[in-house]
Design a protein that fits this description.
The chain has 171 residues and is of the alpha+beta class. It folds into 2 domains: 2-89, Beta-lactamase Inhibitory Protein, Chain:B, domain 1 (2-Layer Sandwich), CATH 3.30.1450.10; 93-160, Beta-lactamase Inhibitory Protein, Chain:B, domain 1 (2-Layer Sandwich). Helices cover 30% and strands 32% of the residues. It contains 4 helices and 8 strands; from the N terminus they run ααββββααββββ. It has helices at residues 2-30, 39-46, 93-98, 105-112; strands at 51-54, 60-65, 73-78, 84-89, 117-121, 126-135, 139-147, 153-160. It has a 4-stranded antiparallel sheet with strand order 1-2-3-4, with helices on both faces. A 4-stranded antiparallel sheet has the order 5-6-7-8, with no helix packed on it. The longest helix has 29 residues, at 2-30. The protein is globular, with a radius of gyration of 17 Å. The chain starts with a helix and ends in an 11-residue tail after the last strand. This is Outer membrane protein assembly factor BamE. Keywords: Signal. Residues 1-22 form the signal peptide.
Length: 171
């Protein structure tokens, strides 16, 4: 029983921590400026990245995921001079349209960050990755990418909130 309670407490703490981070994002974004803010400024405001992607010419992109509790993922590029060159919220319709059949799983992860859910469908020999996102003005939806057994995109789709209807009445 203690083990179950401990797991529940750890899960709640992780969820609350993710929500607290997401709540701080707008303030952190306001405090950063492309071309001026440094790598240290980014880490001070966003924390350590989930993953670091190497870029051409010595730049690197930091991946900051807010899934599954949040509705945004961020990619922040640090130039070879150590200054922030781009800060992008990547869960957008424009990025969703860029995901095409045949793309590999790492290409999709690099574009959108870590998904909220990864669900295998063994009978179909497929896995579905889902990202939660906000469709303006305030509706939570899911962007699904269906991968085949070779971890290549078969298709994409936008569906309802993967966690069910919003209990606050917003969708």
């Amino acid at each position: 029983m203690k083990s179950i309670m401990r797991r529940i407490a750890l899960g709640l703490a992780a969820a609350l921590g993710a929500l607290a981070l997401a709540a701080c994002d707008p303030q952190a974004i306001k405090e950063l400026e492309e071309g001026l803010s440094t790598e240290a400024d980014v880490v001070a405001r966003f924390g350590q990245p989930e993953r670091v992607w190497p870029e051409a010419g010595g730049a690197k992109t930091y991946e900051y995921n807010r899934q599954p509790a949040g509705l945004r993922n961020y990619m922040i590029t640090i130039g070879p001079d150590g200054r922030m060159t781009a800060l992008r919220q990547v869960l957008t319709p424009e990025n969703f349209r860029r995901v095409q059949p045949g793309m590999g799983v790492e290409d999709v992860r690099r574009m959108l960050g870590m998904p909220a859910k990864q669900v295998p469908y063994k009978l179909q020999n497929q896995i579905v990755w889902t990202w939660k996102f906000l469709e303006p003005p305030s509706e939570t939806k899911g962007f699904n990418v269906v991968f085949g057994p070779d971890y290549r995109v078969i298709r994409t789709e936008i569906g309802p909130d993967p966690d069910g209807p919003d209990m606050r009445g917003g969708g």
